[in-house]
Records
---
Amino acid sequence: MQIKRKLTEREQKLLQILINERNKGIQEIAQLAKTDIHDLKTIIDSAIDELDLSFLNQNKEIDCTLISAYNEKLKNIEHAIDRLAEGNYGSCQKCGQPIPEKRLEALPFALYCVNCQKKKEEKNKEATQRSYPMREEI
Ligand SMILES: [Zn+2]
């Protein structure tokens, strides 16, 4: 991961959140895979988009499904870091307002601010109600 331009203070904080999440994910995989974390870091750094999980199959006790899920999460984190590098991370995809750091800490892949998310959920709810009318409406 290389970011060439100078990051704002907020972007630096967000990057730190993402890197923390990334390290947590790598640790989880290392624990599940019972692999030395340094080996795993090298593997992940060299091929984040096509992490070779074949080394896991040597040990049948390992839950590959769970590891794949963590791997998926790591990929999402990488993409978020790429977006941050391009200046496209951390603002609401709908209204363009910056998403609060607290929210991103809890949900690093949040695409919408709380308001837009709520509106979206309400719309979804309305749509569900419309397709399944209440008894009184029939
Ligand atoms: Zn918004």
---
Amino acid sequence: MDPRIDPIDVTVKRDEGVTLVFADDHVASFNLVEVRLGCPCADCRDLRQRGQDTWPRPSSPLPLSIVDASYHGAWGLSIQWNDGHSAGIYPFETFRRWSDEGYVHGPIG
Ligand SMILES: [Zn+2]
């Protein structure tokens, strides 16, 4: 495993955000909206490519929160949101890239 993309600790706070500690001691922290806006699922990618916000959608309850989160294999995090959206699986590598680059733009390209 690459220590830069191998988290040794993942903390999900349903009403706050997601914090990961990587094996090289790098800490990456994101608030809920950042994580939601970067959702890597096909639908959200499509919305971003059309210049639309992936959240909030017309039916989205406010405020945003996480209903459930679980590991997806050894490489990512599956997140279920309070608007029922749960298609996105977030690779740990993506969180690391967002942190290194200082912003979230989603996994386009
Ligand atoms: Zn999505």
---
Amino acid sequence: MTNLHAPMQQSKLQNYNSTRGAEAYKADYQNKLHRKWSDKRERALLTSYFRRIGHVGSLLDLPCGHGRLSDFLKSQCDTLVEGDWSHTMVGLNLRDHGQDHRHYVRASALEIPFPDRTFDVVVSFRLSHHLETQELRERHLRELFRVSKKHVIVTWFSATSLKNILRQVRVKLAGKKPKHVLHNQRVRALAAEAGYTQELAKPLFLIGSGHMLGLYTRK
Ligand SMILES: C[S@@+](CC[C@H](N)C(=O)[O-])C[C@H]1O[C@@H](n2cnc3c(N)ncnc32)[C@H](O)[C@@H]1O
């Protein structure tokens, strides 16, 4: 795969692709309090989103990582496809979750190897804020909208979140690196261009996190 397929900062990517990095990401969610909180909140939001959507036939989870959400997502669909750029993550996920109505693929979320409207639902958690340019973050969204038939659930880091506003101050005063953000309005506009309406867009937390969770439905 080229940098176009996986343009995340190389050191981060290498980490996710190494056995040690993949295992460490998994362990974080078992051991670190803030990870446990955000995991709990994400599941609560996802549960409310799926209450609107209902049980579906097919679902793509990209990037799936080690399969943090695999069991939850499997309970919402007949067939689950788990995909990630990191073959180590895909391998770990397969080892932990097996193949009963679950399929695994090494794939880039920037060039998803499926035709238009393949899945009832496409889910993409915690990738957007790793993509280093606006162009890539938008390309990611367009790909999700393209391969979904009905719904897209996606996270991004909000440009207007308190966390980002505070970061911008530190960028100016302390030379910190800017976050990889999207304006909520721009996400809605891209959805509209692709033929979707925004049903819900909720912050993970109002303070301490800039992550948004959006639900989009094809018109
Ligand atoms: C922070 S993890 C999120 C994993 C999972 N969605 C979750 O919430 O636990 C980011 C994942 O994105 C994967 N990744 C990075 N660039 C990617 C790309 N272009 N396409 C697909 N996956 C990518 C990494 O290998 C890593 O597993």
---
Amino acid sequence: MFEVGVMRSEEVEEVIHLEYDVLGVSPFVATSLLPVKKKVIVARVNDGIAGCATVCWNDRFEIASLAVKKEYRNAGIGAAIIEKCFEVARDLGFDSVWLETPENGPVEFYLSHGFCVESHVRNMYGNGVSGLKMVKHLS
Ligand SMILES: CC(C)(COP(=O)(O)OP(=O)(O)OC[C@H]1O[C@@H](n2cnc3c(N)ncnc32)[C@H](O)[C@@H]1OP(=O)(O)O)[C@@H](O)C(=O)NCCC(=O)NCCS
């Protein structure tokens, strides 16, 4: 069982650790240095946070990260977090949600949640790995 909500101040450290553990970087920390507004959506289980997404926006709304701990995957947590991201975007008045993912990332997962590929970017991360910009149009 899990519940999805907005990160509380006492959960900041756990989110940073989770992002580093799963992604090797912390988009939450990185976006803190940018002139954007942001929120973190978390999925809480009994023993803490199982997954999170950092979302940020100025002129457009982006999912900067999505990460679910290995032991909690394939239980619908990623789907629930992404649906909550859509809700937050709608509540803020956005009609689309953007993200970037490596070509070898969970592209199928995003397609199954209504994202489409907007463009391909070669060497997106400066390490030779190409990426995709994806967009979901909210109806
Ligand atoms: C992608 C991720 C967030 C999905 O979280 P989750 O809680 O397991 O997702 P759900 O349980 O809601 O959905 C699972 C579905 O997504 C699919 N999926 C998960 N990871 C996938 C991947 N890398 N490629 C393709 N499909 C993937 C599963 O096969 C499953 O499909 P099914 O429902 O048809 O069986 C999680 O696997 C993760 O944190 N991955 C590592 C970090 C990552 O790649 N983040 C995105 C950076 S752009």
